[in-house]
Specification:
Distance between the termini: 21 Å
Number of strands: 2
Strand content: under 5%
Strand order of the largest sheet: 1-2
Length: about 170
């Protein structure tokens, strides 16, 4: 098993209503899924890397919050501007900042519950044409539709929960 990608890498899919509802559900349920994935882990376990050279579970949970804050902003920018240029960030450097090291993971889990509540409300009310709106990522020199981003962040949600669950299974943490 590839511990880096326990569910495989993201593969874009053509638009469908069924897939849209599945992906929105992935976003909707991520906060509870991540909360359940880390349930009853102690500080030592949260300081364990999910793979050699990878982030600790503590860093991973805070990363999801950081990433999804940016995702939510990217959606809002795409809906209110014409192909806005988004601000890239160095996720590895963010994972080394004091808030990630010092703040308990439950703070980011709480943040995710509030953030995802707002995000899902937005997603549930998008018009069909909104899914074709775009952002431009200057680092990758790539234009992406909101449809692509929805799939990517739905995958991101499942991906990181799977990393935590995979480590729990390998370590036999009940």
């Amino acid at each position: 098993m590839d511990f880096r990608y326990p569910i495989g890498e993201y593969e874009p899919q053509p638009f469908s209503e069924v897939l849209k509802q599945q992906w929105i559900s992935d976003i909707r349920f991520l906060p509870g899924n991540i909360e359940n994935a880390i349930l009853n882990l102690d500080a030592s376990q949260l300081e364990t890397s999910y793979r050699d050279g990878g982030w600790t579970l503590q860093q991973l949970v805070h990363h999801v919050a950081d990433s999804h804050i940016n995702a939510y902003c990217r959606f809002k920018l795409a809906l209110t501007e014409d192909n806005p240029i988004i601000k890239p960030y160095d996720q590895d450097k963010w994972a080394e900042l004091p808030d990630v090291k010092n703040i308990p993971v439950n703070i980011s889990v709480t943040l995710l519950f509030a953030l995802h509540n707002r995000w899902v409300e937005l997603l549930d009310h998008l018009e069909q044409s909104d899914w074709e709106k775009t952002i431009f990522h200057p680092e990758y020199k790539k234009k992406s539709t909101l449809w692509y981003l929805l799939g990517s962040y739905a995958w991101h949600s499942r991906h990181h929960v799977a990393q935590i669950r995979s480590l729990r299974e390998r370590m036999n943490w009940k």
